[in-house]
Design a protein that fits this description.
Elements lengths: L1 E8 L5 E8 L2 H10 L3 E7 L39 H15 L5 H11 L3 H15 L4 H6 L7 H13 L2 H57 L6 H34 L3 H12 L4 H22 L4 H10 L4 H15 L4 H7 L5 H12 L3 H59 L1
Antiparallel strand pairs: 1-2, 1-3
Helix pairs in contact: 2-3, 2-7, 3-4, 6-7, 6-10, 7-8, 7-15, 8-15, 10-11, 10-15, 11-12, 12-13, 13-14, 14-15
Length: about 425
C-alpha cells in the first residue's frame, strides 16, 4: 500500500486536505470519490514524509509557499483577451512548472511574476487573480475571454477532478498545436491564389473605369462597334455600379435576419443542419466536431472520469446544435445500457470504420484506446478534406483570374484593332 496526500472538495464545496493509503493513484481517487469528495490534487507522498506533513497545493489553493512569495503581487491592469496562440504558450509554460512538482496555483503565480511577454503575463495575472478568489483552475482560465474553447475548459475540469493535470495539459498542447498546424496550412494554401485574384480584380477595375471609357469614346466617334468581349466587360462595369450597392445591402439584411433567427433554438437547429449539407464545408465541420469529441472522450476516460460524466462533459462542448442533439440522444441510449458502438451507429455520429474500432475497444475492455485510434483517423480524414478544399478553392480562384485576364486582354486587343481599323477607313 502506498500513501497519497490529497486535496479535494466536499459536498459543501469546501476544500479538504489529508492523506490516504491505497494500492495506486487511481485507487486513491476512487476511494475519495466513494467518500463523496471531488479530488483536486492527488500525489504520492515522498519517502520519509509523515502523514502530518502538509499536502501539495491544489489549483484552487490561493496560498503559496514562502520561498515563492518574494515580490508583492501586482494587480492586473485590465482584463486581458486571449487567443489560440497565447493559450498554447500559457499551457506550455504551465506544464513545464507543474510537471516539475509545483502545484497549479504556485505555477500560475510564478508565471505571473517571471514572464517577460506582457500579454502572456497579463493572462497569468488574470488567472491568478481568479484563483485567489477561490475559483478552480478551469473556471479561472474560462474568465479570460478567447483563451480556451469550451472543450479545453472541460478537459481542465476533468484534470482537477482526477488529480492528473499533467496528462491533461500534454493532451491540450497536442490538440492546440494540431489546430494551429491546420490553420497555418489553410492560410498558406489560400494566400497565393487570393493574392493573384486580388491583383487581377484591381487591374480589371482600372481597365473598366479608366481605359475602357476612352476606348469606347474613340470607337463611337469613328462609327465603329465594340467587340463581344468589350461589351461583356462594359455590361459588368455597369452592373457593378448600378446593382452593386443593392446587392451589398441585400447581403447585409439577409445576414442580420439569419443571425436573429439563429438566436432562437429552432432557427439555430435548422441552420446548423443546413450547414452540414454544404459540399466540402459541411463534411469538414462534421469531421472537426467528431475529432474534437473523440479526443476529449479519450482524454477524459484516461483521466479516470466515469463514462456518464465523460459523455455529459463532451456534449457541452459541441457547438453544432444538430450534432449535439444527436449526441445527446446517443448519450441517453448509452446510459440506458446500449453499447457505445450501437448508440453511435444508430445516430450516425461516426463512420462505419470508426464504429468498428469503437466496438473492438468495448469488447476488449479498452474503450479509451479505441477512442484514441478514432481520433487519429478523424484527424487524418479532416486533413485530407481540408487539403481537398484548399485545392478546390485555389483552382477556382486561379480559374477565375485566368478568365478575367483573358477577357481583359481580348477586349483590349480587339478594341485597339477596331480603333486602328476605323482610322484606316477614314
Amino acid at each position: 500500500m502506498a500513501e497519497f496526500s490529497y486535496t479535494a472538495r466536499n459536498a459543501e464545496g469546501r476544500s479538504e486536505k489529508g492523506a490516504i493509503e491505497a494500492r495506486d493513484k487511481r485507487a486513491a481517487i476512487a476511494m475519495l470519490q466513494a467518500r463523496g469528495l471531488v479530488p483536486i490534487q492527488v500525489q504520492p507522498k515522498t519517502a520519509g514524509s509523515s502523514v502530518s506533513a502538509p499536502p501539495l497545493k491544489s489549483a484552487t489553493d490561493a496560498s503559496v509557499s514562502a520561498p515563492i512569495r518574494e515580490k508583492p503581487l501586482a494587480a492586473p491592469s485590465g482584463a486581458p483577451k486571449g487567443n489560440a496562440k497565447l493559450g498554447l504558450l500559457f499551457a506550455k509554460r504551465l506544464l513545464d512548472l507543474h510537471s516539475g512538482g509545483l502545484s497549479m496555483g504556485d505555477s500560475v503565480f510564478l508565471l505571473h511574476q517571471r514572464l517577460t511577454d506582457p500579454r502572456l503575463r497579463a493572462v497569468a495575472s488574470e488567472v491568478w487573480t481568479h484563483l485567489r478568489e477561490g475559483k478552480p483552475f478551469a473556471r479561472a482560465v474560462e474568465q479570460v475571454k478567447g483563451l480556451y474553447s469550451r472543450s479545453m475548459v472541460c478537459l481542465f475540469e476533468a484534470g482537477e477532478a482526477s488529480g492528473d493535470m499533467v496528462s491533461v495539459l500534454k493532451n491540450s498542447i497536442e490538440y492546440l498545436e494540431e489546430r494551429q498546424r491546420i490553420r497555418r496550412h489553410v492560410a498558406a494554401s489560400m494566400a497565393y491564389p487570393f493574392f493573384v485574384i486580388g491583383v487581377v480584380f484591381v487591374l480589371l477595375l482600372m481597365f473598366l473605369f479608366f481605359m475602357m471609357p476612352r476606348i469606347q469614346t474613340m470607337i463611337d466617334s469613328m462609327g465603329g462597334r465594340m467587340n463581344f468581349f468589350t461589351q461583356v466587360l462594359v455590361w459588368l462595369a455597369e452592373t457593378m455600379v448600378k446593382s452593386g450597392p443593392f446587392v451589398v445591402i441585400g447581403i447585409v439584411v439577409v445576414s442580420v435576419l439569419v443571425a436573429q433567427w439563429r438566436r432562437m433554438e429552432k432557427g439555430r437547429l435548422i441552420t446548423d443542419r443546413w450547414f452540414l449539407r454544404i459540399p466540402l464545408l459541411g463534411r469538414i465541420s462534421w469531421l472537426s466536431t467528431m475529432y474534437q469529441t473523440s479526443n476529449l472522450m479519450h482524454t477524459l476516460l484516461g483521466s479516470g472520469i466515469n463514462t456518464t460524466e465523460m459523455l455529459k462533459l463532451t456534449e457541452r462542448t459541441i457547438s453544432n446544435l444538430w450534432i449535439r442533439q444527436r449526441f445527446s440522444d446517443a448519450r441517453t441510449k448509452i446510459n440506458e445500457g446500449m453499447s457505445f458502438s450501437n448508440a453511435f451507429r444508430l445516430y450516425q455520429l461516426y463512420p462505419d470504420d470508426a464504429i468498428d474500432i469503437l466496438s473492438v475497444g468495448e469488447n476488449t475492455g479498452n474503450l479509451a484506446r479505441g477512442l484514441q485510434e478514432i481520433t487519429s483517423s478523424m484527424r487524418a480524414a479532416l486533413s485530407e478534406r481540408i487539403r481537398l478544399l484548399t485545392v478546390s478553392i485555389s483552382a477556382a480562384a486561379m480559374g477565375t483570374a485566368f478568365v478575367l485576364v483573358l477577357f481583359v486582354a481580348l477586349g483590349m486587343i480587339l478594341s485597339v484593332y477596331e480603333v486602328t481599323h476605323s482610322i484606316g477607313r477614314h
